[in-house]
Amino acid sequence: MEKKITSNLFLSLMLTTLTLAQAGWIQQSSGIPCSLVSVYFVNENKGWAVSSSCPSGGLLMKTTDGGLHWIWNTTTMLFSITFINDNTGWTVGGDFNGGVIMKTANGGTNWYTQFELEGFGFTSVSFIDENIGYVAGGQFTPYRWGTVFRTNNGGNDWFITIPYAYSTEGFLNSVCFVNQNLGWVVGENGVIRKTTNGGTDWDIQTKGDANLQEVFFVNESIGWVVGRKPPGGIILKSTNGGSNWITISPGIISDKFVDGVYFLDEFTGWIVGEDGLIIKTTDGGNSWDIQNSGTTNFLHSVHFIDQFTGWAVGNDGTILHTTSGGVTSVEEINDTPKIFSLEQNYPNPFNPTTKIKFSVPSVTLRQAQSDILVTLKVYDVLGNEIATLVNEEKPAGTYEVEFNAAALPSGIYFYQLKAEEFTQTKKTLLLK
């Protein structure tokens, strides 16, 4: 098992896809043969992601430029990462050889092992401050026992808070504390447990047939739980600290697992899951908007630093970034057109933003039965895909989308619209 990660072991991962300051979700990285399962950013530039499944075990990644470039190192399987400031953070994981808790005090330049436990795996970490923290997980053998450990001194010492009396409930997948006393854990068999005294006692709130993946509370009262309940996902919400849970059922998750949840406040949050699913609510879960992720890879974790800036990670090294809260700035602007069309962008030449209009005819005119999948992508002169501006089903109408090329060099670029059998490409010039 990896004991220490130092700066001279890091390799540079140069991303071929540029991040553009534009609407929607932008892919920052792809093709890494690892499943990224947790992401955490402390500001718009500095963040980390971890993996539990690489050919050599796990992966620990860091960026200091908002995800444009990453440095990484292979290590043991890791499942969760958190930071309390720019410098101090923890990551946890483990395999059948044992669980591991690692800490950094210099922003991830160096990591050292604080705690190892044979036969255990750690799946989630939550810290209140530089001293008090909790780790959830369980014992692999002889049974899948769930457990939680606590530290009062920044991880120098850890002690168990959930004993084996709860072993029949299975592994615990996520832990969340809002202060040093009040916290929740969730896991297999639909288990949700709550403590009001820092883990001395844990009261069971629910049990069932779901595999709950993550719990997130924005305050002492309002919290969310997401997970997997075949054939689809499950979303639970509480407004009274978990005394009662209601099931939120947006139809999109009826056949899709959901793994990650993040809320900025009691109203605005995102949930991610299978087939590149990203859904957002701005009214506390009463309604949900499906966002275009541009991928079909399973997304496992999402994190935002404000209402606009966030990241999501998932299978095959997927890293997505948004500076618009995930919203695509596409507006329907006039009456129903009769044909597909792609207009010349305006202004052209441009620096650094321009607008592109396109039209989709009605289903009647197209002799079709439903809305049509429309893609609008930008390429450089070598044919490399630079950005996906639109990738979703659209009803009839004329739309306008803004393209921001602030991160690109001057030069010729091409944008291409595809819908059914229709394909049209136009050229544009960026002059800085």
Write the layout of secondary structure elements.
Layout: E1 4-5, E2 11-14, E3 25-29, E4 35-41, E5 47-54, E6 57-63, E7 69-75, E8 78-83, E9 89-95, E10 98-104, E11 111-117, E12 120-127, E13 133-139, E14 145-151, E15 159-160, E16 172-177, E17 183-187, E18 192-195, E19 203-206, E20 211-217, E21 223-229, E22 232-238, E23 246-248, E24 258-263, E25 269-273, E26 278-281, E27 289-290, E28 299-304, E29 310-314, E30 319-322, E31 330-334, E32 341-342, E33 353-360, H1 363-366, E34 372-379, E35 385-394, E36 397-404, E37 411-419, E38 422-430
Antiparallel strand pairs: 1-11, 2-7, 3-30, 4-5, 5-6, 6-7, 8-9, 9-10, 10-11, 12-13, 13-14, 14-15, 16-17, 17-18, 18-19, 20-21, 21-22, 22-23, 24-25, 25-26, 26-27, 28-29, 29-30, 31-36, 32-33, 33-36, 34-35, 34-37, 37-38
Overview of this structure, please?
- It is a single chain.
- With 432 residues, the protein is an all-beta fold.
- The protein has 1 helix and 38 strands.
- A hairpin with a 5-residue loop joins strand 4 and strand 5 (47-54).
- The longest helix has 4 residues, at 363-366.
- The protein starts with a strand and ends with a strand.
- The model is unreliable at 1-21 (pLDDT under 50).
Largest sheet: 5 strands, antiparallel
Highest CATH level, the class of the largest domain: Mainly Beta
The portion of residues forming beta strands comes to: over 45%
Helix content: under 10%
Note poorly predicted spans: 1-21
The total count of strands amounts to 38
Termini Cα gap: 50 Å
- Give the mean pLDDT: 86
Described by the principal axes of the CA atoms, the overall outline is globular
Total domains, how many? Answer: 2
> What is the CATH architecture annotation of the largest domain?
7 Propeller
In CATH, the homologous superfamily of the largest domain goes by the name YVTN repeat-like/Quinoprotein amine dehydrogenase
C-alpha-based Rg, rounded: 23 Å
Secondary-structure class: mainly beta
